[in-house]
Design goal:
The complex is a heterodimer of chains A (about 200) and B (about 150).
Chain A lengths: L1 H39 L4 H120 L4 H26 L1
Helix pairs in contact in A: 1-2
Chain B lengths: L11 H16 L10 H9 L7 H17 L2 E6 L5 H14 L5 E6 L7 E4 L4 E3 L2 H6 L2 H10 L1
Parallel strand pairs in B: 1-2
Antiparallel strand pairs in B: 1-3, 3-4
The chains are: A mainly alpha (about 200), B alpha+beta (about 150).
């Protein structure tokens, strides 16, 4: 933006210089016309030459003066523009940096709060999961124990039958006879009562 | 004549078959060229009868009928099937210790693991290894819980 302003000022300065040059040339043209008029009106050659020299000198002095003024003005304006530009850039940059810093601080604060919330939520959820897991584990253990309690005999019998294989009658004969012998009185009494 | 049952004849169903067979024989006036069952021959031999006559047939029928009516029957469940010899020995032992004309209904139950269960008309005696192991399963469950 500032660069565009500088360019516009430079263009205006050049235009002013061109305008001055045009005015000088017009002025010189009028002088020449006056000189021609005077010549045709019987002016002498010396006067013509003298007037020409004077006009040229005036013109040169005026142009130099205007050129110096223009150069000075241009330098002054350029320095001011540069200073303004620096000031503007500094102001803008500082302002933007401040805004950026503020925004960054806000974003950082938001992120920090969100992170804290996430951590707290995670911790809370973790506690719930741990409690749920402990409950589930206890329930599962209770269920397993109940299954074992209800089916222990069948489970163990199946296991023993699988591990030990079939016990043939001969292998258990002594056990059977001992068991019958141990209970014979009760069985006998029971049979006699029935008969 | 003492009435005795051979060890090979032990179940009520066998006696009912014998009763039916003897009943058929009784109706025959001249029982010749008849094939007798092994159980009948063994029953006759056990009671000292060498030849089946009308008289001996009636005597055996009376024995069978009275045994069916008067003898006790138990249901004996075993974990595995005994051989014929072991079964006869078991029947003999039971009749010697419990009742001379005892009838036995055999059942095979492998889940008993070993031993037997004896069921009379009114009582069941669990003499199995299964009962010995798990008769008090609360103690076993408690051990599992403690473990």
């Amino acid at each position: 933006m500032n660069i565009i302003i500088i360019l516009i000022l430079i263009v205006l300065s050049v235009a002013t210089l061109v305008l001055w040059i045009i005015l000088v040339y017009r002025y010189l043209g009028e002088i020449q016309i006056q000189h021609k008029t005077k010549s045709t009106s019987n002016n002498s050659a010396d006067m013509t030459h003298q007037a020409k020299l004077e006009a040229q000198a005036k013109m040169t002095a005026a142009v130099e003066k205007q050129a110096l003024a223009l150069q000075k003005a241009l330098l002054t304006q350029s320095s001011a523009i540069e200073a303004d530009f620096k000031k503007s850039i500094t102001t803008v940059t500082t302002k933007q940096l401040d805004e950026f810093s503020k925004t960054l601080a806000m974003v950082s604060s938001d992120i920090s709060q969100q992170t804290k919330a996430v951590v707290e939520s995670s911790q809370s959820h973790s506690k719930l999961v741990q409690q749920s897991l402990a409950t589930d584990t206890a329930n599962t253990k209770a269920k397993v124990l109940k299954v074992i309690d209800d089916n222990i005999a069948e489970i163990m019998i199946g296991y023993l039958a699988e591990v030990a294989g079939d016990l043939d009658y001969y292998q258990q004969k002594d056990y059977l006879y001992s068991a019958i012998e141990a209970n014979k009185d009760a069985i006998k009494k029971d049979i006699n009562n029935a008969v | 004549m003492p009435s005795r049952l051979p060890a090979s004849i032990y179940s009520p169903s066998q006696l009912r078959q014998l009763s039916a067979e003897l009943g058929r024989l009784k109706s025959l006036r001249n029982p010749k060229n008849i094939v007798f069952s092994n159980n009948l021959l063994e029953l006759a031999a056990e009671n000292g009868i060498k030849k089946l006559t009308v008289t001996s047939t009636l005597s055996l029928l009376k024995l069978v009928t009275s045994t069916l009516e008067q003898s006790a029957t138990i249901t004996l469940s075993l974990a595995s099937a005994p051989s014929i010899e072991d079964r006869d020995e078991l029947v003999t032992m039971l009749r010697r210790k419990l009742q001379a004309q005892l009838l036995i209904h055999f059942i095979i139950q492998p889940e008993l693991l070993a031993g037997a269960t004896i069921r009379t008309d009114s009582t069941s005696y669990d003499l199995s290894l299964r009962n010995a192991l798990f008769g008090n399963k609360d103690k076993l469950t408690m051990r599992l819980k403690n473990a």
